[in-house]
UniProtKB/TrEMBL annotation:
Origin species: Halobacteroides halobius (strain ATCC 35273 / DSM 5150 / MD-1)
Similarity comment: family membership: Belongs to the 1-acyl-sn-glycerol-3-phosphate acyltransferase family.
GO cellular component: membrane
UniProt-recorded name of the protein: 1-acyl-sn-glycerol-3-phosphate acyltransferase
All copies of domain Phospholipid/glycerol acyltransferase, residue ranges: 36-148
Entry keyword Repeat: no
EC number: 2.3.1.51
Length: 195
């Protein structure tokens, strides 16, 4: 992490601890180096900065392209590791960019549901996440975010699970059923961290 990122990372951690009384569990589950796909549930706009502050490595994100329309937001988002993706799923350019980030042994964080979820149950994972995970064959780190919908009223809890892989889906052409099964495995890992 460069100096500015490291400084703002520490400021965010301190602010979240003081402002939200947050608790982070499982920090040791994040590999210290190498590529990782981080997957988490998504209920509010606070989720990306909370997730980034909880992890001790720089995080790169896919973010909806509309966020990049403002020139200032564009620069800030890109500095903090975000890159644009079209709504409706991971296109070829976003897939290539995600694979490149992982090839460079960095962290790519994704919200598999594809958008904020206001309901009580997790949605199905977008299939682009499965494609990234099976093509890259890197560890997947599940994270459960609790209390982020109203962080000022609730204690925020970040539960970091143990890394896992979708090895049974590697090196083969997956049909839609297999892709959905792999996506469900991802969502099950996240769901187990929401208690």
């Amino acid at each position: 992490m460069d100096f500015t990122y490291q400084t703002t990372h520490k400021l965010f951690r301190t602010a979240f601890k003081l402002g939200f009384g947050w608790e982070v569990t499982g920090e040791d589950n994040l590999p210290q180096n190498g590529p990782v796909i981080v997957v988490a549930n998504h209920v509010s706009n606070f989720d990306p900065p909370i997730l980034a502050a909880a992890l001790h490595r720089k995080v790169h994100y896919m973010a909806k392209e509309e966020l990049f329309n403002n020139p200032i937001a564009d620069k800030v988002l890109k500095y903090y590791g975000a890159f644009p993706v079209r709504r409706g799923g991971v296109g070829k350019s976003a897939l290539r960019k995600g694979l490149q980030i992982l090839k460079e042994e960095k962290i790519l964080a994704l919200f598999p549901e594809g958008t904020r979820n206001q309901g009580p149950k997790l949605k199905k994972a977008k299939l682009g996440i499965v494609m990234l995970a099976t093509k890259s064959q890197v560890p997947i780190l599940p994270v459960g975010l609790l209390g982020t919908r109203s962080p000022i009223q609730n204690q925020v809890k970040v539960n970091i699970g143990k890394p896992f892989r979708l090895t049974e889906y590697y090196n083969k052409k997956l049909d839609k059923t297999e892709m959905r099964q792999a996506g469900q495995e991802i969502m099950t890992q996240i769901e187990g961290l929401l208690e």
